[in-house]
Amino acid sequence: MTELLCWIDGVVRPAESVSMSLASDASLRGISVFEGIKAYRAPHQDRYCVVSLHSHIQRLQVSCELMRLRVDSLADRVNEGISALLKAETRSEVYIRPTVYLRSGYYGTVADADLVVLARSAADHRAPLRCSIATQRHVPASAYPWGAKVGAMYAFFRLARLEAVERGADEAILLSTDGRVAETPGASIFVVRAERISTPRLEMGILPSITRLTAIEILQRRMNIEVIEEDLAPRDLCAADEVFVTGTLDEVRGVLSIDGQSIGSGETPVTNALLTTYLAACRVGDPTPPVGSAFFPGHPS
Hints:
This protein is 27% helix and 29% strand. With 301 residues, it is α+β, with helices and mostly antiparallel strands. The strands form 2 sheets. Strands 8, 9, 10, 11, 12, 13, 14, 15 and 16 form a 9-stranded mixed β-sheet that branches. Strands 1, 2, 3, 4, 5, 6, 7 and 17 form an 8-stranded antiparallel β-sheet that branches. The protein starts with a strand and ends with a strand.
């Protein structure tokens, strides 16, 4: 199977067969918004469980509004694209990326935008992370529409991640302009200490992550562990019993060390229990909150 499939203009095709003008505002200025969605093939069934699809589509619509991108029938078209792609899929876990972008028009106008939906294999992102505190600071909430998932923002996130890799780490941890813990380039951060879990507040300008919300609800409703949204300093990470991150691709992923300093004793019972509960719901499919699975037929195995 082609590694990267694409649904565009109502047709599924290999992504490498699709071209875009270098003069488009998506190319020139990165004017696009997107979602990252995970689909799990149900065990012994020819169908996929797509996690929190309704919530992802809602956030994509909000992103379009905040970035002044107009797309007709967005929810219907995203569902159509995902359905067409998954009917061609046999892989056990699929990463789906609907993207709304300016293929034509001028960036100084409110122009009609286009939709493309990509699908690729979701690589295993479950090994514990070695992290590094980034020297660059997170863009403050007052500087951009932080409720939107904007493609251009990831140019900044890329630099933070490259710096972390150059330091021998796997991922960066971004701080706010006043030194508080914000997020990683692709995930939300949680701290476990003395049976108490904390995570940074959304008001700092971090992405309103859907997986973050799902994790909070699982922890509080199913595991009876309270989660506090509060300001965190880097020292809170280093003094924690456990640190983990949550995101579409990371799912629930433990942090092994930060700038070479090990986290806790190395035992991660909360992280492990949360990951087990989360994956069980995602793989079998749970249409009720917080997972909110939607079901689509896959290619017969």
